[in-house]
Every structure is written in C-alpha cells, then in structure tokens.
Amino acid sequence: MTGRFIWQGKRVLITGVNGFIGGNLAKYLMQKGADVIGIVRNISEDSLLYFEGIASRIKLIHGDIVDKELLMRVFAEEQVQCVFHLAAQVEVGVARAYPYLTWETNIKGAYCLLEAVRENRENIEAVVIASSDKAYGEYGKDKMPYREDYPLIPVYPYDVSKACADMIARSYSSPLYGLPIVVTRFCNIYGPGQLNFSAVIPDSTRCALGYGEFVPRSDGSQLRDYIYVGDVVELYAVIAENLAGNPGLAGEVFNAGTNKPRSARGVVEKVFEITGQQEKYEKIEKLWADKKTIGEIDCQYMTFDKVDEFFGWKPKTSFDTGMRETIDWYRKYLSAKRELT
Question: Which residue out of 158, 172, 228, 333 is catalytically annotated?
C-alpha cells in the first residue's frame, strides 16, 4: 500500500450504487468517511441502499451510464477522485433473451464512463472496473481454477459483454492513455441485499423462509464459486488504495474466489439445512432431474492467489458463516416487506 491514501473526505463515484454490491460498497466507504456519489438509472427503493437508510446519506444522481454528457457533468461538478464501475445488466437469462440491450449497457456503458474519466483525468486517482469470471468463457473443469493470464474466449451474450468491457478498460489503462485502471474478475458474489430473485441463493432462501416455493431451473450440477459480499467490498477498497499513486498497477487484472466450487444443488441444500427446512428440501430434491440449461457455463471457480501476492488479502468469511448472516438479513427484510403489504 502507498500509505498516502485515506478515504476520509475522498470523492468516490459508484455506478450501479442501488444494486446489491454497490449498496454494500457505499455503506463500507461511507463508514470510512468517503463522500459517496452514486449514479442510478431506475431509483427503486426496494434495495439495500434504502432498506438500511444509506440512500439519504450519499448523493444520488439519476441517469443512464450510457449518457456520456451526464457523466462528463458528474465528473466536472463533483470533482470525482475514485471510481468503482459496477453498473451492468447482470442477469444471464435477460442477456440470452435481449443481447442488444445487454451489450448497450455493459459495453457502451464502459466506454462512455472511461472516456469521461480520460477527459477528467487530472482528479482521478483510481478506477476499479468490476468484471466477472464469466468473461473467461468456458475452459472445462480440467482447466479450473481460472488464472488471470487465460485468454478471454466467451461465447454467450453476458459473458461477451463483460469481456468486451475488460478489453476497453485495458486499452484506457495502456501506455497510450495511462489511466489508473484495474479490472477485477470475481466469482459469484452473495450476501445481504441481493434482491435478484432469479439467482439461486436469494430464490432458495426466500422459499426456505416460507415466502413461496422453490422450483429448480437446472439439474443442479453446475459448479460455481461463492464469495461473501463483505469480503468483496473490502477487497475493492484495498485495490483502490493500492492503485492510487502507483501507476505500475494500471492495467492489472485480479481474480478473487475461494477456490471451493459448489454445485447449485449443494447450495440450495445448505440453505434449507441452515433454516431447519430439511423435510421441505427432500421434496425439492426430486425436481432437479432432467432440467438441463442452455447458454450457461458448467464449471467456474477461481483462486485469490494474485491478490494475496500483491496485497496480502484472503477471503475471511466461510460459506457457512456468510450464509447464516445472509439468511438473517433476508429474514428481517422479508418480514419488513410482509408488514408493509
């Protein structure tokens, strides 16, 4: 770490701040004294940002990440010093059905943001671009875990969109422009505030807590790595702290996972076990069969070796601990939602 970077009073822009990870990151940086500015396209109050009262303590700007003129005004008026680009269309199923919209948001959004950074570079100390393990494409179980030097070979629309944004970011961080940009490719992130109920952990947790029935959308065999959101936001901050004032880090790519892949079926079983609903899961067990999916990678996981080597960082939260904290949060959230209806 450079030793010169402190968050107190730092002007931080988070795109996608009203999302699950953006809300957790805003909360973390706000607690460290940062002045957080967030860009949101659709101001939905059904989010962690509002549920935990974070929205009233940061500055929210309504607009679209593909609106370059808006971004230029934000950078100029807010004197942004650090950027976390999290805004994206993240649902794989939506990407399959509407590839154009996904590419517009995830690819155009990336170059509009980075062009605004380039034109306001005098203030910018660090830019962290949130990519995904899916940018690598499918390598097969024998090539796991993913390594940062693997060529990007995606095929499916969401995966392609993230790989394109990666390459755009690396162009801006090259000696041609020399912007202080790092790309992160993390495994599946879970934790409090994840309200995309098409994802396996939110969906199964909601059902295990008595708010609906869980219907598997696959045969449950896909292997994924899961990392807790609290560990992720800490790592984002660590990367930005080290990147500021250290041009040698520009253009680096960092993976982060636990290197402990789990099947979708195993994850759902764990949710029902923690909630004491094993009997309910026994009925679900029979529903996995013959539900093969198309357009999804079968096996993905990664290590934290490089971030450990560079920054001495390791994930701290075990899957059991993270899931218990996550389920406790959903229990409070769903109970509050029920009281309002």
Answer: 158
